[in-house]
Amino acid sequence: MAITFEVIHKDIAGRVGKLRVNDKTVRTPALLPVVNPHLPLVTPREMREMGVEALITNAYIFRRSTEFHDRALAEGLHGVLDFDGVIMTDSGSFQLSVYGEVEVSNRDTLEFQQAIKSDIVVPLDLPTPPDAGPGRAARELAVTMERIREAQALFPDANLAAPVQGGIFTDLREEAGRAVRDLDFTFAPIGAVVPLMESYRYKELVQVVLAAKRGLSPGTAVHLFGAGHPSMFALAVAMGCDLFDSAAYALFAREGRYITPHGSLKIDELAELPCACRVCRSMTADELRKSEDRERLLALHNLHVTLAEIARIRQAIQDGTLWELVDERCRSHPRLLDGYRELLAHVAELERDDPVSKRRFFYRGSETCRRTEVLRFHEVIPRIPLGERVLVSFDGQGAPGFDTVLNFKPPFGPYPVELAETFPVGQSEVPEWDDDMVRSGCAGIRSLMEAHPESRFTVQCGEVWTRLVLEEVPDAEVLHEQV
Ligand SMILES: [Zn+2]
Q1: How far apart are the CA of 285 and the centre of ligand 1, in A?
Q2: CA of 82: how far to CAs of 33, 155, 249, 437, in Å?
Q3: Which HAMAP family does the record associate with it (predicted)?
Q4: Would you list which residues are annotated within the binding site for substrate?
């Protein structure tokens, strides 16, 4: 197959990579705008000028269109759409989920997608809705896997994507991911998550995506099917999603909705246009609202904001600041915060992919204490050699009579002075200490004590922390700092 994926930078489970399809390259994370040939609010040529390297369109629409069917077969999609980047086609399984039927077989759609020169073709999978029980989800997954295998057998040279289904059942999603890995696919969309996103079920979204990722090979490019709003891209990328497709820029524009990285606003309620794009800087909110070209201008703005967020995420991965961006974005809606907290509940699996060293670590409140870097510090710190009498000094003053003196930095915990300049101690910025971060640091002291039962521990801290330290580290002696 002529799809390859190369990971270049990593942060959490997110990656900056290069997807190569035939002779074309797409930088990831990437956004594939959804193009409807009948209603192109923004043309593919304009998208190309905005930096779009890949788009997605629906083979089902071309198949049924009296206007485009023959042209697509004669000129190919790139000719009809006037776009020389990567074009992926969806098989029409979305229509299946909406209308309950499609008239084409798996073989038909695969033949048609190839005949219209799609760069990435998708078998006719069954998107299981979130309200389906485990029996139905398992039966439908079996059908999807059968169709993926059929696709591979019929068209071994095609650029096939292998959708991962399984409804809301994490065991099925993981099994589906493993099956796709065993078939050696480089490109795997995670399907049927749109209803979860539309109803703000981000906690379940995180569970389902992480389950699929556990099954998939780390070398597989993962496309989150139908993920449209930029406020959740950072969260999805942190889980290891590499590509998104978005119809939201156009759908929202039709509804008069103005996308921002934090959420969307009704254009009718806006007094200002808080954005740097050409549309927003060339007119007032009132002018945009009253413009005859309102839908198209809104779509241009929405797409600009969406693409800018993808660029911001790619930069954050290279800077090692994706956690900070996830934290910021997920505070824009309480249900996104649920998704973020669910992600933090899985740090043990995320930590394996997370880089050991980063440029910086900013403390942003209690959630920060559960990040990968803190977990790793608590796993690594027990390895430092200790003497018999150990002092953990909150202010670094030290005291006579100890064999080992360690400093203390929350939310990490105790560290030897040699590690003062290394990540994360040296590169972390924390505000005035709060209870959450000191408790997290005390967990680091406990890890150290468990690993060194032969040593005796004393914690030297200001009076303000005495009670908390006694609660968190009851087996240590507490020594007050010299005033
Ligand atoms: Zn704008």
Answers
A1: 10
A2: 14, 27, 20, 54
A3: TgtA_arch
A4: 125, 192
Q: What is the CA(78)–ligand 1 centre distance, in A?
A: 28
- Whether 409 and 341 map to the same domain: the answer is no
Report the CATH number at residue 124. Answer: 3.20.20.105
Residue 356 lies inside a defined structural domain of this protein: no
Q: How far is the CA of 262 from the centre of ligand 1 (A)?
A: 14
Rounded Cα distance between 13 and 2, Å, is 25
**Ligand 1 centre and the CA of 449: distance in Å?**
54
Written as tens digits, the pLDDT of the chain (483 aa) is 589 999 999 999 999 999 999 999 999 999 999 999 998 899 999 999 999 999 999 998 999 899 999 999 999 999 999 999 999 999 877 666 566 555 778 999 999 999 999 999 999 999 999 999 999 999 999 999 999 999 999 999 999 999 999 999 999 999 999 999 999 999 999 999 999 999 999 999 999 999 999 999 999 999 999 887 999 999 999 999 999 998 999 999 999 999 999 999 999 999 999 999 999 999 999 999 999 999 999 999 999 999 999 999 999 999 999 999 999 999 999 999 999 999 999 999 999 999 999 999 999 999 999 999 999 999 999 999 999 999 999 988 888 999 999 999 999 999 999 999 999 999 999 999 999 999 999 999 999 999 999 999 999 999 999 999 999 999 999 998 765
Domain presence at residue 333: yes
Q: How far does residue 305's CA lie from ligand 1's centre (Å)?
A: 7
Active-site residue, 434 included: no
Residue type, 448: L
With beta carbons less than 8 A apart as the criterion, state whether 407 and 414 touch.
Answer: yes
| Bind-site residues | 125, 192, 275, 277, 280
Contacts 24+ apart (CB under 8 A), 414-418: 414/381, 414/441, 414/444, 414/445, 414/448, 415/381, 415/384, 416/384
Domain tally for the chain? Answer: 2
- Pair 216, 282 in one domain: yes
Residues with CB under 5 A from ligand 1 (ion): 275, 277, 280, 301
Last residue of a domain, one of 326, 351, 376: 351
Separation CA 112–CA 92 (nearest Å): 12
How many Å apart are CA 272 and CA 286, to the nearest integer?
8
| Residues of the domain holding 423 | 361-480
**Known binding-site positions for Zn(2+):** 275, 277, 280
CB-CB neighbours of 111 under 10 Å: 16
Given the residues 23, 70, 82, 90, the one annotated as active site: 90
